[in-house]
Amino acid sequence: FFFFFFFFKQKTAYEIMPSLVGSEMCIRDSFQIVFIVVWLGSAIVTVNGQLLGGSISFFQSVCVLGYCLCPLTISALIVKLFLSSLHVLIQFLVALLGFGWSTYSSYGFISDMVQADRKALAVYPLCLFYLFLALFIIL
Questions:
Q1: pLDDT (0 to 100) of residue 96
Q2: Residue 57 region, left (φ>0) first, then alpha (ψ -120 to 50), else beta?
Q3: Count of other CB atoms within 10 angstroms of residue 74
C-alpha cells in the first residue's frame, strides 16, 4: 500500500510541474552519460596504453583525461550560456575548437608513455573520446 501511495504521489507531482521534472531529468541523465563515458574512456585508454607497451595506470589515465577535459568544459559553457540561440554551425565550431585543444593537450601526456612508432595508435582512442564529448556538447 505504501509503495502504491508513494508512486501515485510522485507521479502526480511530475504531472503538475512537467517542465521542472524534464529539465532535472535531462541534467541528471547528461551527467550520468558523461560520468560513464569518462570512466570507460579512461579504462580503454589505460588498456590500450598497456597493450602498446606503455606504463600507465588507470588513475593516471583518469587524471590526464580529466585535466584535458577543461577545454571541452569551457566550450560547453560558452555554447550553452552564450551561443545557444545562434546557428548550430557556430556551436559546432566552438565544440571543434575545444576538441582540438583537448586532443592537443592530451597528446603530450599520452605520447610520452609509448614508443615513437606507436604514438598514433595511442592517441586514436583519445580522439574518439574527445570527439564524442564534443558532439555531446552540441546535442
A1: 92
A2: beta
A3: 15
